[in-house]
Write a structure and sequence with these properties.
By secondary structure, the chain is of the alpha/beta class. It has three domains: 68 residues, Winged helix-like DNA-binding domain superfamily/Winged helix DNA-binding domain (Arc Repressor Mutant, subunit A), CATH 1.10.10; 121 residues, Response regulator (Rossmann fold, 3-Layer(aba) Sandwich); 141 residues, Rossmann fold, CATH 3.40.50.2300. 43% of the residues lie in helices and 17% in strands. A six-stranded parallel sheet has the order 4-3-5-6-7-13, with helices on both faces. It is elongated.
């Protein structure tokens, strides 16, 4: 137990010193007593850790004068800023997330730098490793494997708000596959057999492939799998480019037309990310009362837009933002780079009418 704590403190101190937390070369470090309070360990553990770092030539302990950063240590200066990398183009969830991150950073007396990934991809990952920021948050699937490996190699902490299955990546996300399986089983329990799932088409990580695997397995076991009912055609980026801030409404109308083109309407539809009201209105324009024809279940990343008359999986985005920020802040303060992953559970509103 003592050895584990001692090695953890050595790692944290080494990271903080080499990344400029206490200043550049020849900078004086806080006293052993101050360090013991900061790292929440005993004076004995701090003394042992500092002596080890002196043997590594990271610091120079000069008796009563204190400990100093050695001249041959190249320090990465602290900026007291966090960098946010995103693909935000006007969706309400993105706006609220950035607003919340600014609020959380201000609480910690830190600044927030915002950089739109689409405008800087030609410079990544070199740009990010040289940016004067203490850590990075990646939203809207803006983190690539190449960038993740570059940041990890540079010992710069970062957190993704989307799951990315690389050993060096820390991420915060919801249990999409587990909640999806629960939604399917709920609908099957209410007598539904033809269950459609509509979502935007995505090409990052294994998110959609994992959902499709759950969809196939669950419905094959129930003897009612139909490949045509797993619908994911339009991408968010394409729809944003074509329709601007009205992309969600346009995508919802197109999704309604996809469903209307089926030989028969499904018994139930799991609607992920689309506007329920627009779907209902589009069906009504074609003379179809969708609520009477199909059972609707919504999977939403913004709890505020929950249509209460429908069962739903609610993914409050602000919860993910808070968890991700707290994780990155912990990395910055402790000198850790992870990886550490947080799997959040959605709020289920499965009400049988």
């Amino acid at each position: 137990m003592f050895d584990a704590k001692y090695t953890d403190v050595v790692e944290a101190l080494r990271f903080d010193i080499r990344n400029g937390r206490f200043g550049g070369r020849n900078a004086r470090l806080p006293s052993f007593r101050e360090l013991s309070k900061e790292y929440k360990v005993s004076l004995v553990t701090i003394a042992k850790s500092m002596n080890f770092l002196q043997q590594e030539n990271v610091i120079d302990i000069q008796g009563t004068r204190g400990a100093f950063v050695k001249a041959d240590v190249t320090a990465r200066p602290r900026s007291n800023d966090i960098a946010l990398i995103h693909n935000f183009i006007g969706d309400i969830e993105g706006f609220h997330a950035i607003e919340a991150l600014e609020e959380y950073a201000k609480e910690k007396k830190m600044g927030l730098l915002s950089l739109k990934a689409a405008e800087s991809t030609q410079y990544l990952p070199e740009l990010l490793t040289k940016l004067n920021a203490d850590g990075f948050i990646f939203m809207h699937s803006s983190l690539t494997g190449e960038t993740a490996e570059a940041l990890a190699h540079a010992h710069i902490p970062f957190v993704s708000f989307n799951r990315l299955d690389l050993d060096c990546v820390s991420w915060v996300d919801y249990d999409n596959t587990g909640s999806f399986a629960g939604a399917l089983k709920f609908l099957l329990s209410t007598g539904c057999r033809r269950i459609a799932h509509i979502d935007f088409k995505v090409n990052f990580g294994n998110y959609q492939a994992a959902l499709h695997a759950v969809y196939r397995k669950t419905l094959e076991e129930a003897g009612c799998f139909d490949e045509r009912l797993f619908i994911a055609r339009d991408t968010r980026g394409e729809m944003r480019r074509i329709f601007g801030q009205q992309f969600l409404e346009a995508a919802s109308r197109r999704a309604a037309r996809y469903l209307l083109e089926l030989p028969e309407l499904p018994d139930a539809i799991i609607i992920r990310s689309f506007s329920g009201e627009v779907l209902l209105d589009e069906f009504a324009r074609h003379g179809v009362d969708l609520e009477k024809k199909s059972r609707l279940l919504f999977a939403l990343e913004d709890i505020q837009s929950y249509p209460e008359r429908f069962p739903a999986l609610l993914f409050p985005y602000r919860e993910k933002v808070r968890a991700g920020f707290d994780l990155l802040y912990k990395f910055i303060r402790t000198g850790s780079c992870g990886p550490e992953c947080i799997l959040l559970q959605p709020v289920e509103k499965f009400v049988v009418r």
